[in-house]
Amino acid sequence: MKNIFIALFALAIMFSGVSAYAAVDCTKNSPIDEIGDWFATLGKKDMEKNQILVQRKANRVAACTKREAEKAAKKAKQAGEDMKKKMGF
Q1: Handedness of CA 67, 39, 35, 49 (dihedral sign)
Q2: 39-74, pLDDT tens digit by residue?
Q3: pLDDT at 77 over 60
Q4: Using CB atoms within 10 A of its CB, is residue 24 exposed (0-12), middle (13-18) or buried (19+)?
Q5: Sign, CA torsion 64/67/73/76
Q6: In this model, does residue 22 exceed pLDDT 60?
Q7: Which of 3-17, 25-39, 48-62, 74-88 has the highest mean pLDDT?
Q8: Using an 8 Å Cβ cutoff, are 55 and 15 in contact?
Q9: Number of folded domains in the chain?
């Protein structure tokens, strides 16, 4: 019975951290991104400039999302291993 309560408590703690991962805003540009975008679009016409900016933004968002997903998976795996150790499995 005690193990069940410990497992439920551990799951509650694990799932309470989900909102922390959602707080990461991958759509924000850093000043470094802005400078890189400026150099990438220097001398380009409007249509080509917009295409480059959209592509670079999409690549940054995809990379950020992938990094955050990997971090979340790593933390979840670690939490699962810790829970197994505590429960004696």
Answers
A1: negative
A2: 999 999 999 999 999 999 999 999 999 999 999 999
A3: yes
A4: middle
A5: negative
A6: no
A7: 48-62
A8: no
A9: 1
In this structure, are residues 40 and 29 in contact, taking their beta carbons and an 8 Å threshold?
no
**Which residue range is the domain that position 35 belongs to?**
2-87
Structure tokens of 38?
Answer: 């400026």
Q: Which amino acid is at 44?
A: K
Cα–Cα distance measured from residue 19 to residue 49, given in angstroms and rounded to the nearest whole number: 36
Q: What are the CB-based long-range contacts (under 8 Å, 24+) for 17-24? A: 17/75, 21/68, 21/71, 21/72, 24/64, 24/68
Q: What are phi and psi of 25, to 5 degrees?
A: -105, 100
The backbone torsions φ and ψ at residue 27, rounded to the nearest 5 degrees and listed phi first, read -90, -10
- HSE, CB side, 13 Å, CA atoms: give it for residue 57: 13
